[in-house]
């Protein structure tokens, strides 16, 4: 089975291609706003590097967040478009799982932490399938077990606060190679079922004011 994996829910945009669990090619880039511009050329680059045709892909894996709303939508829209064109299933994985995949060994609990902005983070214990937390750094600190290790861009951003009670290993980003090689057979399904993992309302919201005499006014 040839798997094409996409990740763009954080500052990292990444694409990987794997054959039966062996990574054939991988590309990634840390970028603040160029998710849409970078992801398609990366798909083309990994296919060329692996000397593989797009039609050989038999499964798409996509990172559905939590993370940046625009980035999540870019990755999922790309995955769906490719899956519909190829007639292949889509499997989903979370950004927290992909960060946890590259977390170093530790003799205590490990937590993947994604920057949620608004002075909040998304967090989940590595290997724990419970629903991720959406909390402030201070609230997460209150819930951390002793001897915890934190990784991810959320851990990096608030390292000063977290370091007072836990270990922080900086620079860990979602592993798109892990997305391409994880055993996700049970998660595969129709492309239409792939959806962003929204844990909070979007940062941008419509603000409608009703003026006297206007639409809806008196």
Write the layout of secondary structure elements.
Layout: E1 2-7, E2 12-19, E3 22-30, H1 35-49, E4 59-63, H2 69-86, E5 90-93, H3 95-101, E6 110-117, E7 120-125, E8 133-135, H4 137-143, E9 149-151, H5 153-157, H6 159-162, E10 167-169, H7 176-181
Parallel strand pairs: 1-4, 4-5, 6-9, 9-10
Antiparallel strand pairs: 1-2, 2-3, 6-7, 7-8
Give a quick precis of the structure.
This protein has 218 residues and is of the alpha/beta class. The chain folds into 2 domains: 114 residues, Nucleotidyltransferase, domain 5 (2-Layer Sandwich); 67 residues, Nucleotidyltransferase, domain 5, CATH 3.30.420.40.
In what order do the strands lie side by side in the largest sheet? 3-2-1-4-5
The CATH homologous superfamily of the largest domain corresponds to ATPase, nucleotide binding domain
Q: What is the end-to-end distance?
A: 63 Å
Main beta sheet? 5 strands, mixed
Shape: elongated
- Helix share of residues? 25-40%
The assigned structural class equals alpha/beta
Top CATH class of the largest domain: Alpha Beta
Query: Could you name the CATH topology of the largest domain?
Result: Nucleotidyltransferase, domain 5
Order of helices and strands: EEEHEHEHEEEHEHHEH
Low-confidence stretches: 204-218
Look at the structure and give the mean pLDDT: 90
Strand percentage:
25-35%
Give descriptors for this structure.
218 residues, alpha/beta, Nucleotidyltransferase, domain 5, five-stranded mixed β-sheet, 7 helices, 10 strands, disordered C terminus
């Amino acid at each position: 089975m040839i798997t094409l994996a996409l990740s763009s829910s954080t500052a990292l945009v990444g694409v990987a291609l794997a054959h039966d669990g062996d990574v054939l090619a991988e590309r990634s880039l840390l970028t603040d706003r160029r998710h849409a511009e970078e992801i398609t050329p990366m798909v083309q680059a990994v296919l060329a590097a692996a000397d593989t045709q797009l039609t050989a892909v038999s499964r798409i894996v996509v990172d559905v967040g939590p993370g940046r709303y625009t980035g999540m939508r870019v990755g999922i829209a790309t995955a769906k478009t490719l899956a519909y064109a190829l007639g292949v299933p889509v499997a989903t994985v979370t950004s927290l799982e992909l960060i946890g995949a590259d977390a170093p060994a530790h003799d205590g609990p490990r937590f993947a932490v994604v920057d949620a902005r608004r002075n909040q983070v998304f967090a989940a214990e590595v290997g724990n399938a419970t629903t991720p937390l959406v909390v402030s750094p201070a609230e997460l600190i209150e819930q951390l077990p002793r001897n915890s290790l934190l990784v991810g861009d959320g851990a990096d951003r608030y390292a000063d606060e977290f370091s007072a009670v836990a270990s922080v290993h900086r620079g860990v980003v979602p592993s798109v190679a892990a997305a391409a090689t994880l055993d996700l057979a049970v998660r595969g399904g129709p492309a239409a079922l792939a959806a962003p993992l929204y844990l909070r309302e979007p940062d941008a919201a419509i603000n409608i004011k009703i003026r006297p005499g206007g639409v809806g006014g008196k």
